């Protein structure tokens, strides 16, 4: 048993090293005084200065964050109500059908999805640019939200909804005071997950960009074909920091919600015990 535990720890260490060493290697050379990743010649912030001085790159970075934020907000709203719709379906077979349709975008290759959106926008006469990228990002983000919110709904005791209805609560009150507080952590998980998916998406975005509009992943790909500039390393370090901040924010939100839920349960139990004593 002890030997298995050591093997598992060793396996986890190897996995994390394989995942994070390339990232840390890339970030390390963002602080390199030289211009190449062959050797570290000294500490310098000049590549960060070059990155921030590149107005085109900063504009693309802003576009990327705007797309990620807007698409995540819309996808979280639509995906949450989509999960509610699937949850409220009474027939199990019908639930599985809609859940399967939802999962198509999750399992389909990104190249196929991107090409499909390109054909759709071309047939509809929609100019490629900000609008096409936003619609595509919303579309592939919705299934992510559904898959993260639906398990929280399945965990919820349906007796809570029936009790609220028996007490005279209107549908919007049941939604506001019973359902949404319970699934809030799933909603926030979906929101932050879709932001990260939108920030690093390349394949779908590559097909639907146009009219001079592009996102960070497509721009990095275009620059990488001409030779890696260490300002890209600096930009990657910045993006890694942003992702880390998003994870920390979600952790604190989820942790705060769990503590608040625990306090509420204890208060309810104490109130019931107090009522029983009286």
UniProtKB/TrEMBL annotation:
Please state what the protein is called: ABC transmembrane type-1 domain-containing protein
Instruction: Please list the residue ranges annotated as the ABC transmembrane type-1 domain.
Output: 61-250
Q: List the keywords (alphabetical).
A: Cell membrane, Membrane, Transmembrane, Transmembrane helix, Transport
Give the location in the cell: Cell membrane
| Superkingdom, natural source | Bacteria
Q: Name one Pfam family in it.
A: BPD_transp_1
* Residue stretches spanning the membrane: 12-31, 60-89, 101-128, 134-153, 174-196, 234-253
């Amino acid at each position: 048993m002890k030997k298995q535990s050591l093997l598992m720890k060793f396996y986890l260490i190897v996995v994390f090293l394989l995942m994070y060493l390339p990232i840390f290697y890339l970030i390390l050379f963002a602080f390199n005084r030289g211009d190449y990743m062959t050797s570290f010649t000294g500490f310098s912030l000049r590549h960060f200065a070059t990155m921030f001085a590149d107005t085109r790159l900063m504009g693309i970075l802003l576009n990327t964050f705007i797309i990620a934020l807007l698409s995540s907000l819309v996808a979280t709203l639509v995906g949450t109500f989509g999960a509610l719709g699937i949850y409220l379906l009474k027939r199990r077979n019908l639930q599985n059908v809609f859940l399967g349709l939802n999962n198509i975008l999750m399992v389909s290759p990104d190249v196929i999805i991107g090409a499909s959106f390109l054909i759709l926008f071309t047939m509809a006469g929609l100019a490629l640019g900000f609008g096409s990228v936003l619609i595509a990002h919303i579309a592939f983000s919705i299934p992510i939200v559904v898959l993260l919110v639906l398990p929280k709904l399945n965990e919820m005791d349906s007796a809570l909804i029936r009790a609220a209805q028996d007490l005279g609560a209107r549908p919007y009150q049941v939604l506001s005071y019973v359902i949404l507080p319970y699934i809030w952590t799933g909603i926030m998980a979906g929101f932050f997950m879709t932001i990260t998916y939108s920030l690093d998406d390349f394949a779908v975005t590559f097909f639907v960009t146009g009219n001079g509009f592009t996102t960070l992943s497509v721009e990095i790909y275009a620059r990488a074909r001409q030779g890696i500039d260490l300002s890209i390393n600096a930009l990657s370090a910045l993006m890694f920091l942003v992702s880390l901040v998003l994870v920390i924010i979600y952790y604190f939100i989820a942790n705060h919600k769990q503590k608040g839920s625990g306090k509420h349960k204890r208060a309810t139990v104490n109130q019931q015990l107090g009522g029983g004593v009286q």
